[in-house]
Amino acid sequence: MRIKFWGTRGSIPVPDSRMMKYGGNTTCLSAELDGRLLVIDAGTGIRKVGEEIMRRGIYQFDMFLTHSHWDHIQGFPFFLPVYSQRVAVNIYGCTSSYKTLKDILSRQMSQEYFPMRFSDLKARIDFVPGCEEVFQINGHKIRTINANHPLFTVGLRVEKGGTSFVFITDNELKQESPATAWSTFVEFCYGADYLVHDAQFTESEYAHRRGWGHSTFDQVLELARAAEVKNLGFFHHDPDRRDEDLYRLEIEYRAASKLKQDRFQVFAVREMSEIEV
Fold it and tell me: Which residues constitute the domain of residue 109?
């Protein structure tokens, strides 16, 4: 698996020179699954993915939407492949809303918000239920877990041949009344080659933001230890977190991990970076 991060920011895009190092686009990443492309979430980072897909002439691929909060779908209307009649895409997702994913994406493309309608898209788009706990894409097993977030949100574990990548965004690990228990997250993440997890807040920030559906750096570090993962990536960076501050936190938590003699590597995920699993 080759994973590329096209958008790493949380809540709102930040086109700010102080946020260039780690990126200002909202959530989007892609996974190359033995020749089959899986795009995860459709934040503003998906615009660049679309350009890459068209450049490479990829006409069949899959997409998974973890949830429908604005920063995870707002790039969809600017996703070039869905305007091509040569393209066929399966969109996986799960929602507790009375609205289907198709309805949600269609509504954000109503003429009050955007000049093109969903019905104007030329690609063949099939919506596939993603509420199953386990499903397959091109020989890769994909397991899902319910995150602790105000809106129903799904985390993913992609695995094949003994390698595994876990991506959990918008998840409050220490929520007071969690939908999913801590022990379940430990089991889900256990032994992963890479765990990329929401770490939007510091502990001091979290004290005033409980219930917002996001975790802290300390909480995610604790999860990585308990789950004995091999690499840990902090993700969903706060929109007010400048490069210099995020870099300081990255170095601080890398040092804390080394002091504890953790066996995993710690990093803050950067936009346009890639990892091999």
Answer: 2-276
Whether 268 and 249 have beta carbons less than 8 Å apart is answered as yes
140-180 pLDDT per residue, tens: 999 999 999 999 999 999 999 999 999 999 999 999 999 99
What is the CA angle 77-49-53, rounded to 5? Answer: 100
pLDDT in tens, 177-228: 999 999 999 999 999 999 999 999 999 999 999 999 999 999 999 999 999 9
Asked whether the whole model's pTM tops 0.85, one would answer yes
Q: Are 48 and 40 in contact (CB under 8 A)?
A: no
Place of tokens 């959990």: 168
Specify the CATH number for the domain of residue 184: 3.60.15.10
In 22-36, which positions are buried (b, 16+ CB within 10 angstroms) versus exposed (e)? bbbbbbbbbbbbeee
Counting every residue, how long is the chain? 277
How many domains does the chain divide into?
Answer: 1
Cα distance between residue 270 and residue 9, in whole Å: 9
Q: Are 145 and 168 in contact (CB under 8 A)?
A: yes
Helix (H, G, I), strand (E, B) or coil at 221: helix
Cβ proximity of 67 and 22 under 8 Å:
no
Count of Cβ atoms closer than 10 Å to residue 102 Cβ: 14
